[in-house]
Amino acid sequence: MASHQSSSPIPISPAPTTVNRASSLSRPPRRASHSMAGTPGSSLARRPSRATHPPVAPLRPLSHDEALEALRGFLKERSSYDVFPVSFRLIVLDTQLKVKKALDVMLLYGVVSAPLWNTATAKFAGMFTVSDVIHLIQYYYHTSSWEGAAADVEQIRLQSIRDIEKTLSVPPPPLLSVHPLRPLYDACRFLIRTHARRLPLIDKDTQTNSEVVISVLTQYRVLKFIAMNCRDITQYLTGSVKDLGIGTYVSEEKPEGNTNPFYPIATAGLETTVFDVVHQFSEQGISAVPIVDENGKVLNLYETVDVITLVRNGAYQSLDLNIAQALKQRSPDFPGVVTCSPKDSLSAIFSLIRIRRVHRLVVVAGQDDPQPGRLVGVISLSDIMRALIGHEIPIGGSGVGAEVVDRALREEAAEDGVFASSQSTE
């Protein structure tokens, strides 16, 4: 494995011979008396975890499809709460908190999203994510001076962001959530079908019947959980990512008049302005853009999280900088760009997830290609999860409300008994 401290691409390397397999499944069962601080009335305080042991190693080699079925069975036997360790930190932001303070907290604790809590109603109020920051940037870029924007962000509160998004004609984000004891497989299907990157786990206080935010389930946390506990199964996922159709790849077929040489992948060059990239984030609903040279070789990656620092520091004028200048302001602990080749197996990707944090992989041409390092595709965590759970027709989008999703899940329940409600505890 190459150094993680440079901004150069980091290729996938073979899995190490020794891997720390410690996880929430390899420790003793959670005590029935275990309760998170601040959730004394939660039903989780008296309910033991479901299964607490890794799956039994297969007695014979598995085919790729058999390995997938084994992983799905594993997810069906675990609850969403099983993914989390006994002790973990949860950052919850009050809707009355000022945006500047919220960004300070997120950067301090190294998170890019946090649940929102409405103290007046004592209810979960959605999520504050990088997408909200992007919308804030777009609004002030077009409607205010740099000085005015900086002054406003010092005073604007989180609850006001929804009004700004209405001005931009951005659909209201759905209030999606599931109960912590719902099967993990159900939660994964929910993530896929609603295009959500994260899913809050909401319980009910048994004494007051008020909502309790337990944690937030993310795609990375689920995939890490699988990688750490199912190594004996993931080793049989031998199909290549390209052959399996995992990811988005550069296509020779493009709409008439489209001049993007990497269609349908959004890219940028070192001379592209930060705001142009921010616009791509918002318009295409993506969280990162590969930075390429004139020959299509991947040089770097610009991510939505890079924008948070600009807003926090009030450096709105930095949006007019080009990417080359903006990258110089990036934190020195940036882990680098994670790359793979189209021939790498899904097993190799799980080996990588097992040993380091991965949010996406940039697919580049291998050394046997006439143009090694050339951009070939992008693989998101959603792509990997969809390959595991199955390709299903999505029932929602960015503007789907919780009621719509809940109704769709109830309709599906009538067919296969999988979902009862987006808030069901059974």
From TrEMBL:
SMART domains: CBS. Residues 1-10 have a biased composition (Low complexity). Residues 1-60 are annotated as: Disordered. GO terms for cellular component: cytoplasm; nucleotide-activated protein kinase complex; nucleus. PROSITE patterns: CBS (PS51371). Keywords: CBS domain, Repeat. Residues 171-233, 259-318, 330-395 form the CBS domain. It holds the Pfam family CBS. Signal peptide: none annotated. The keyword Repeat applies. SUPFAM superfamilies: CBS-domain pair. One of its GO terms (molecular function) is protein kinase binding. Belongs to the 5'-AMP-activated protein kinase gamma subunit family. This is CBS domain-containing protein. It comes from Papiliotrema laurentii.
